[in-house]
Amino acid sequence: MLGDLRVRASDASARLAELETKSGKLRLPAFLPVYNPNKPYVSPSEMRRVGAQAIFTNSYIIWRTPRLREVALERGVHGLLGFDGIVFTDSGAYQIYRFGGIEATNLDMLRFQHAIGSDVASIVDVPMASHLPRREALDGVRMTVRSAREWREHRDELQGTLWIGTPQGSTHWDLIGYTAREMAALGFDYYGAGSLKVALETYDFKVQVDLLLTIRRWLPAGRPIHFWGVGLPSALALFTALGADSFDSASYALFAESGRYMTPHGTLLLDELEEFPCDCPVCSNWTPREIKSLPKAERVSLLSKHNLHVLLSEMRLIREAIRGQWLWELVQERVRAHPRLLEALQWALSKYRDILEEREPFTKFHGLFYSGPESEHRPEIIRAKKALKRVSAGGRVFEHPIFGKVPIGLRYTYPFGQSIVPGWTEPSASPSDSELISAILQYQFGVKAPAAFRSLRLTRSRATGMPRDVYDGETRVGSIRPADGMFVPSLEGAIRLIKALPWPKGRVVVRDEYADRVARGTTVFVKFVKEVDPEIRPGSEVIVVDCSDNVLAVGKAILSAAEYRSFRRHQFIRLRHHSLPRETSGEG
Q1: CATH number, position 140
Q2: Selected catalytic residue, list 4, 11, 84, 90
Q3: Rg (CA), the chain
Q4: Which of 34, 373, 401, 418 is close enough to 367 for a disulfide, judged by CB 3.0 to 4.6 Å?
């Protein structure tokens, strides 16, 4: 359905997702190059060939230019631009920031963007600089909220277009919070963070972190967040990890105009280059000397194409990092491109650890790679240290450079054994069956979990000796997953386990009207759910029960307990086993 967000994978606070638009599915996270019809250094069709699935253009520039407006109204914005992908449009808000106002009203721009077929469009908010006095910021907030409410009044006539609402308030955090709450209540399809001007231009990334994460506290997680104006390749991984889903910028062209050559690690001056450290089509066919000898327009065009290639390639790499769950390692590498980026990461991990932990997967299939001192402050590490305290310290332990004394039973469990730290060697000792099962159950489900079973034993792989199936007496109650060393309960294991766990620990409670369908294998959607264990995170192993605590199924969480309610339609639990036979017809 139009506007639905589907999360396919997650890491840090980032999600690999798809957003349904009228021109097709937008893969997130995404970088959207800004196309200015007055500076066509790279045409939209060329952007498409380089890999841009969506672009941004300014509808106000089109509206105020008669020849562009006429074509856009006749052929649509896609026809005007010659772009068959997804088109986002700005409302002219940037012109308010630069020039103090625009000639059109908010309603003019709402109707115009809708009329020209924008896929994702914007209200006329008031962008602000980071140093704006409170009185001016308050005036801008009032205008922004008026525009948002006007959009809500006319929403029915604007159906088919997705709409971005961007909270404003400069660095006055109470105003930012007020605007964000107002916009969340109005129900926008997409939300924005305004990338505070001046601060961004002076590489004050800390204040951008404050802005993004302050806004995130108040916005529904089931809607994407667009971070306006972020166009540095080295910054994209950081802000994606903090929860931004898309970015736009004309940086690829602006940098080219000033002779700056982008790399994932920073920018270089074309005048100082002897050879290109890149194999994109531009760098493979031209030398720095040849490009420097060209007329300015040609030089800027070629350099813009290279810069765009770098930005889009970086976003593809970020998406792969989310799929592989090594995004934090990529972030830690990229922030070393500039000391203020590293400072911003350290700031985020120290000040916003709670909100970052809410969407952090419980477990990962990629081992923990120590990438610098800030690794110890990553949200999954802080959470693991906390959970470790509930595991009985009796018996054998091994010394870990990050976690200290760790029970030997967690020898194979993420992130304790599955980590690589310079100068540290994993312990050679192997846990006994009882040490391993007891420690893992306590770590995942709490100190009372082992009491659910009487006589636990393991089977092990003949080839590797690694633990596999878990039995209580003669009954199989689960398995130890090789990829992360976690306990995966069977249905019988879940039935025994919940008897020892306090309500609602480890559970997702399904409303009675959906219980039979779930018991027969229907995916647990967010609307089915009545109550959940608040500690559930993406990747958590969960037990699905009805309101009487009868086990219906077991599975794995796709979303966290903190975010699932904000999704309109989404899977919450991917089932592994269900308690009743699947029906041969009907939903399933």
Answers
A1: 3.20.20.105
A2: 90
A3: 26
A4: 418
Where are the strands (E) in 91-242, listed by range?
Answer: 120-122, 162-165, 190-193, 225-227
The helix (run of H) or strand (run of E) holding residue 472 is strand 467-472
Q: How far is CA 156 from the centre of its chain?
A: 30
User: Phi, psi at residue 185, to the nearest 5°?
Assistant: -70, -30
302's tokens: 């070629």
Spatial separation of the C-alpha atoms in residues 424 and 408, rounded to whole Å: 16
| DSSP codes, 223-239 | S-EEETT---HHHHHHH
pLDDT above 70 coverage of the chain, percent: 97
Q: Residue 496: inside a domain, yes or no? A: no
357: CB partners within 8 A, 6+ apart: 379, 380, 382, 383
Please, are residues 27 and 245 in contact by the beta-carbon 8 Å criterion?
no
pLDDT over threshold 70, residue 588:
no
Residue 90 is a catalytic residue: yes
Which residues are bridge partners to 120 per DSSP?
88, 162
Among the listed residues 450, 449, 533, 471, the one whose alpha carbon sits nearest the alpha carbon of residue 544 = 533
Both tokens of 392, joined, read 């009985």
Q: What is the distance of C-alpha 3 from the center of its chain?
A: 17
Q: Are 406 and 400 in contact (CB under 8 A)?
A: yes
Give the range of the structural domain holding residue 80, as residue numbers without chain letter. Answer: 5-352
Q: Is residue 388 part of a domain?
A: yes
- Considering the domain architecture, whether residues 315 and 407 belong to the same structural domain is answered as no
511-539, pLDDT tens digit by residue? 999 999 999 999 999 999 999 999 999 99
Instruction: Answer yes or no: do 347 and 365 share one domain.
Output: no
d(CA 557, CA 540): 5
User: What does the alpha-carbon distance between residue 429 and residue 420 come to, in Å, rounded to a whole number?
Assistant: 17
- The amino acid at residue 197 is K
Which residues make Cβ contacts (< 8 Å) with residue 221, sequence separation at least 6?
A: 359, 562, 563, 566, 567
Which secondary-structure segment (H or E) carries 459? strand 456-460
Q: What is the pLDDT of residue 586?
A: 46
Closest CA to 567 of 2, 44, 86, 5: 5
Q: 471 has which bridge partners? A: 457, 476
| Host H or E run for residue 575 | strand 571-578
Q: CATH no. for residue 506?
A: 2.30.130.10
Residues 367 and 475 in one domain: yes
Average pLDDT over residues 459-471: 91
Report which secondary-structure segment, H or E, holds 94.
Answer: helix 93-99
Give the Å distances, CA to CA, from 216 to 90, 133, 248, 358, 563. 21, 23, 18, 12, 11
